[in-house]
Design brief:
Helix 6 packs antiparallel against helix 7. The chain has eight helices and two strands; from the N terminus they run αααββααααα. About 9% of the residues have low confidence. The chain is an all-alpha fold and 245 residues long.
């Protein structure tokens, strides 16, 4: 089991290195460095820090219970890094990308994703010019906190409703992805309200920019997450269980 997990993690690491070495333009959903006014950048950081602290406590508890989970945690983190580093051009002139958080949410719960998201976003900001350090709090709240929480809620509802596991995995990934972009739209809308129509109009505008291309991306991410989860179960690297059970 340990060797199989290490192979999965090694594959993710190789893909991540290739993404780092490949020349890319740094335009994406992550709010870029210096884009948010200081009051909003600091505010989102302050909101994010308690979630980060809770995630660290939960992560420590998981490792203390079973040290073998370290490799699986690393795999989930690599999965988030690789998917969220894929910047796909949008027909609206922006860029979009998957988030990859659903696998970690299903296996370990949403609190751990705050730590993984912080690590991923920091590395992407420093190594890929994707996002930023001052805006990391805002980006982490959308991709590593609120999106995963909604995905986890959907997963719980799917389990209680008796839906097939693959359906539940798909729905978790799909909604976690879409909600991430919805939250980012709200973050940008409240920081940069429309001069004439106000905050609501700005939020709707930003959602329109993202959602046209994000819906098919969310569907693709859901299908990919189902495939990865099924492979982990078939290879007996994880049991067909969920954090909620």
């Amino acid at each position: 089991m340990q060797k199989s997990l290490e192979k999965f993690s090694l594959t993710g690491f190789v893909i991540a290195v290739l993404l780092i070495l490949a020349p890319q333009e740094a335009f994406a959903m992550h709010i870029m460095e210096g884009f948010l006014p200081p009051i909003w950048a600091i505010g989102w950081w302050l909101i994010f820090l308690p979630f980060l602290g809770a995630g660290i406590v939960r992560l420590r508890h998981i490792v203390q219970q079973d040290s073998n989970q370290k490799v699986l945690l690393a795999l989930c983190c690599a999965f988030i890094f690789v998917l969220s580093a894929l910047k796909i051009p949008s027909v609206t002139g922006s860029c979009s990308h998957p988030t990859g958080v659903a696998l970690a949410v299903i296996l370990f719960g949403p609190s751990v994703v705050a730590v993984m998201g912080a690590i991923v976003l920091l590395f992407q900001a420093l190594m890929l010019a994707h996002g930023g350090v001052t805006t990391l709090g805002a980006n982490a709240m959308s991709m590593a906190v609120i999106g995963p929480m909604v995905g986890y809620l959907v997963w719980r509802i799917s389990c209680k409703a008796g839906l097939r596991k693959d359906v539940g995995v798909f729905l978790c990934a799909f909604f976690a992805d879409l909600v991430t972009y919805a939250v980012t739209s709200v973050q940008l809308g409240v920081a940069f309200p429309d001069p004439q129509l106000g905050m609501t109009a700005a939020i709707v505008k930003f959602m329109g920019i993202f959602c046209l291309t994000q819906i098919p991306i969310a569907i693709a991410e859901g299908l990919l997450t189902v495939l990865i989860y099924d492979q982990l179960v078939k290879r007996r690297l994880v049991h067909a269980w969920s954090f909620s059970q």
